[in-house]
Amino acid sequence: MLAHIIQNLPQVLIDGLTLGVVYAVVAIGYTMVYGILELINFAHGDVFMTGSFIGATVLFLFMGMGFLTALPALIVFLIVIIIAGIATGLLGVGIERVAYRPLRRKNAPKLIALITSIGISFVLEDSVRFIAELKTGNYIVTAPSIFNHRFTLSAHDWFPFFNNATFQGSFILVLAVTVVMLVSLDLFVNKTKWGMAMRAVAQDRDTASLMTINVNRVISVTFFIGSALGGATGVLFMIQYGTIDPYIGFILGIKAFTAAVLGGIGNIRGAMFGGVMLGLLEMFAAANLSIITHGAMGAEYKDVFAFIILILVLIFKPEGLFGKAVVEKV
Amino acid sequence: MTETTAKNFLKISKIDSYYGQIQALNGIDLYIDKGEIVTLIGSNGAGKSTTLKSISGQVRPKQGTISFDGIDITKKPAHQTALLGIAQVPEGRRIFPRLTVRENLQIGAFSEKNKTVVSERMERVFSYFPRLKERLSQKGGTMSGGEQQMLAIGRALMMKPKLLMLDEPSMGLAPIIVEQIFDIIKEMNKEGMTILLVEQNAYQALQIADRGYVIQTGQIVLDGKGEELMKNEQVREAYLA
């Protein structure tokens, strides 16, 4: 049994990492907004989904214009991801303006904002579904594939106890782009003036405004960054997995939110770690559950496995792995 | 600087402010001339902090006007009032607990783009509070109460304000630290800073103030020179006993 689990390890690592970095970037969107507004923005998963559809739309447009064959795939990809990122960033800013800011101005209870975010989530899902069905006759869309070369990682040649693993070209792309996004976000938050303003607003909004910081603008910037990263990740998802529908943001959003909680909600590095960990655990479970339980539980129980880990972590460390227990001197 | 703005550098006319449905201020009149230390004393819940918050824009008055340096600031939001040169050291210090001491100071100079100016101002803060220099990379929340108060004042100075408003800087601090902080307030005033000091610790506040106002249930009930108020029977009974 153990030998079998070890044999599969390279493939589990590759698949888990792919999924994990996607969770990580989406988790950041949850954690940033929570850090600043103490709001769980349930619409964020659907911003991710909208990003994947915007990406697919641009890709189809390019295909129609013949760009797909004329331009190198990498250039096409960069243009698509940038357009989708900017568009979803603006979408996030718009959602905050229209739905959350008026509530904040009236000092509405946080629960109201939470319910509003669920409402926004439905609006996004149904709008995208409506448009997709109108244009293509089907709300499940299969994107034109780029980067679908298959590579083989000959792990077996180096370590005989491993099996070989295979991956698509897009795996490298997903990994590279998410790592770039994660590292630049971390630098932005910790090293720049606006990042510092963001952290100050998260810690004490009223006092930050006394420091000449325009709090509403910082909140807009936060939504822009979180949503743009989420939307760009939607494009990565679309390229990696090919088929998208208006409901991919729901489960993925819940999982990314779980990752954020796992790492300690409000903590950006925690969200990154939580995402990667959740992705790896999930893929490990998918590959091995049936072996471990002698067929009693199949791969479809992978989510149960992931959430059991979450529950265990929260029982023993309720603030999450990287969260600080909230005790502050006044 | 024209005579009028040096005279009523800050002028509050008949403001009413509310917290939700509750009226916290009822027709407050107050002025500060350039270079003065003015203190606002009164008991808990009298409206001292609300007065400061009305000036800084954290609370918007329903009635009346507030002008600063000749500009009407009644309806300005807090970050714009701060840009005009009004710094507030809030009650309970409110330093950013998970920013380092250095970052807490830097954020005070958020609107200043020139990095050399920022580091010059930081040196100036260290000349008042040398202890902060030893703690630059420590997180704000891990410092003692007195150090946090120094940091909160230092952070406000980083704005290079024209008017410095302090909300109960003595709260919760040991007498010797209070002494130090009041000495520094006096020193800053001597160097030309206009100061509005809100205190429950009336004795110490009146000692360093040019003038004082006594606030009770949202109204100014007395005002006058610092030493006059100290001799006043009513004040002695209510606040100095």
TrEMBL record, chain A:
Entry's family note = Belongs to the binding-protein-dependent transport system permease family. LivHM subfamily.
Q: Which InterPro entries match?
A: ABC_transp_permease, BCAA_transport_permease
Record-annotated membrane-spanning stretches? 20-40, 47-68, 74-95, 107-124, 167-189, 218-241, 247-265, 272-292, 304-327
Identify the taxonomic lineage of the organism of origin: Bacteria, Bacillati, Bacillota, Bacilli, Bacillales
Lipid bilayer topology? Multi-pass membrane protein
Q: Name one Pfam family in it.
A: BPD_transp_2
User: What does the UniProt entry say about where the protein is found?
Assistant: Cell membrane
Descriptive protein name: Branched-chain amino acid ABC transporter permease
Main localization is membrane
Q: Which organism is it from?
A: Sporolactobacillus mangiferae
Q: Which UniProt keywords apply?
A: Amino-acid transport, Cell inner membrane, Cell membrane, Membrane, Transmembrane, Transmembrane helix, Transport
From TrEMBL, chain B:
Residue ranges occupied by any ABC transporter domain in the UniProt entry: 10-240
SUPFAM superfamilies recorded for this chain?
A: P-loop containing nucleoside triphosphate hydrolases (SSF52540)
| Keyword Nuclease in annotation | no
Q: Which UniProt keywords apply?
A: Amino-acid transport, ATP-binding, Nucleotide-binding, Transport
Name the PROSITE patterns for this protein: ABC_TRANSPORTER_1, ABC_TRANSPORTER_2
Q: Under the GO molecular function aspect, what terms does this record hold? A: ATP binding
Query: What family does the Swiss-Prot or TrEMBL record give for this protein?
Result: Belongs to the ABC transporter superfamily.
Return the PANTHER family for the record: HIGH-AFFINITY BRANCHED-CHAIN AMINO ACID TRANSPORT ATP-BINDING PROTEIN LIVF
Name the chain's protein: ABC transporter ATP-binding protein
* High-level lineage: Bacteria, Bacillati, Bacillota, Bacilli, Bacillales
